[in-house]
Amino acid sequence: MTGTFLGMPAFPRAAAASTRDRRLRGNLRHATRTIRDKRARAVAELSDWQRLRAAGAAVKDRTLRHLDHYLEQLERAVTAAGGTVHWAADAAEANRIVTGLVLATGEREAVKVKSMVTQETGLNAALEEAGIRAYETDLAELIVQLGDDLPSHILVPAIHRNRGEIRDIFRERMGSWGRPAPEGLTDRPAELAEAARLHLREKFLRARVGISGANFMVAETGTLVVVESEGNGRMCLTLPETLISVAGIEKVVPTWRDLEIFLQLLPRSSTAERMNPYTSMWTGTTDGDGPRDFHLVLLDNGRTDALADTVGRQALRCIRCSACLNVCPVYERAGGHAYGSAYPGPIGAILTPQLRGVGSALDASLPYASSLCGACYDVCPVAINIPEVLVHLRERVAEGGEVTVRGTRTRIRPARGHAAERAAMRAAAWAFDHPRALRAGQRLAGRARRLQPRRLPGPGRAWTASRDLPRLPAEPFRDWWQRTRGDRHDQP
Q1: CA distance linking residue 228 with residue 240, whole number of Å
Q2: Given phi > 0 = left and psi -120 to 50 = alpha, else beta, which region is 87?
């Protein structure tokens, strides 16, 4: 059984442990820098990239404003094409629906396309409890599953593993999940890929049930779209007799013309390719071609609550490209597991607290998992202003009070230490409103400059544990101004 994100520690504790793992940091540094350099070159090929980016953001915003209309249109189109639409308010309901659909077929196995939303709901664990074994077929997801691990990246779930670790996982665990690894398997990429291909091929040919997510859903035709690089998705989407797709309600786009924008934005931002090697599209069912039964499970799971937040709703534009992870200095050092969610990195720091609420220590800590450098905003292909949302969510955590989470009123307690922070801000506001008191305080601080400590006491200890206090100048600004210009200008 693959591990679970539930019960993980708050980000500061998890990151403190992961940043000490030198192998992990080396793996992440090499992988993220390679991916982001390739992406930069791919994006530079398009002179109209910024216009494409703005168009993608505009389409997403228009869709979110009229989401109810487009979802109803999608349901009608899917139903007319021979599919069945199910609505799930939360993760538990989605898992019950999918489990029931698999059990109804009489099968006890299913092959899966890589899917972030089923990671979000914990579907694999729910299926296992019902006696159903779900096989991940994406190479990186296969590595994670065989290693009884958790994904740590949106695009490359096993980015925290190097080739030697993958070889050992294949040697030790493949046999218990099906065809064992070949004798004498080395860590050469070609050999590892061939071992995975042989292991998965028998599952593709045997499976009667396929489970997928969706990158996009076209409302006007009821068409679902999956983009991938290996071909495993194509096998899962065409060979089984029953196909069950789970998708968040925000994945809908109005028309085929709108889809064309995202099929340019996504591959360059994610894999640095001009187009994805495999773009699979399906519309309901067709006699003699593909699955005989198609089910679409539309998942809310906090998305409606996020939609009600006029600042935070832009997180629902996300097309899961992972570009923000690859440029984030915090992610590069802490890794994806520290975020305690299926959505790591900057996008996870704003999406997860909105989907799950900020009532737990983990979720309340995520908006602070950023230096606010803005690199994530610069590379986002749909122009999500992640720093703006981070600050907005920090305000929500700091203020506390009641919020609505999945239809339930929940009281948020201000994070520990925020009472002292608010008191300090009130004191600063009073001082700035009383110039004489401010001047006296500055002069007193100036006289005590020789007593400057190397580390701050009390709550400030955590801040100076990893950085030095800036050195104070030899002379206060007021004294310098009076000495150099006081005879020509009034003292400020």
Answers
A1: 18
A2: beta
pTM for the structure as a whole: 0.84
How far is residue 476's CA from residue 467's CA, in Å, rounded to a whole number? 23
**Distance between CA atoms of 30 and 35, rounded to whole angstroms?**
9
Does position 1 have pLDDT exceeding 60, yes or no? no
Exposure of 326 in the CB half-sphere (CA atoms within 13 A): 27
- Secondary structure class of 155 (helix, strand, coil): coil
Category of 90 on φ-ψ map: left (φ > 0), alpha (ψ -120 to 50) or beta? beta
The token pair that represents 87 in the structure block:
């609505």
Question: Per mean pLDDT, which range of 243-257, 333-347, 409-423 is the poorest?
Answer: 409-423
| Helix and strand counts by DSSP (H, E) for the chain | 23, 12
Q: Tens digit of pLDDT for each residue in 18-56?
A: 999 998 999 899 999 999 999 999 999 999 999 999 999
How far is Cα 209 from Cα 244, in angstroms, rounded to an integer?
A: 8
pLDDT exceeds 50 at position 2: no
SS3 content of the chain, % helix, strand, coil (to 5): 55, 10, 35
Confidence bin at 355 (pLDDT 50/70/90): very high
pLDDT of 100 over the 50 cut: yes
Determine the angle formed by the axes of helices 386-399 and 345-356, rounding to 10 degrees. Answer: 40
Q: What are the pLDDT digits (tens) for 142-180? A: 999 999 999 999 999 999 999 999 999 999 999 999 999
Classify residue 155 by burial, with Cβ atoms within 10 Å: 0-12, 13-18, 19+: buried
Nearest to 24 by CA among 159, 150, 155: 159
Given a contact cutoff of 8 angstroms between Cβ atoms, the answer to whether 450 and 456 are in contact is no
What is the C-alpha separation between 474 and 464, in angstroms, rounded?
A: 22
Checking if the pLDDT of 461 tops 50, the result is yes
| Predicted pLDDT of residue 195 | 96
Burial pattern 263-296, b for ≥16 Cβ within 10 A else e, equals ebbbbbbbbbeeebebbbbbbbbeeeebbebbbb
Count Cα atoms within 13 angstroms, Cβ side, for 336: 29
Q: Residue 395: enclosing H or E segment and its boundaries?
A: helix 386-399
Tokens coding 248? 């968040």
Radius of gyration of the chain (CA): 26
Short-list 261, 260, 354, CA closest to 57: 261
Query: How far is 72 from 431, CA to CA, in rounded Å?
Result: 56
d(CA 112, CA 245): 10
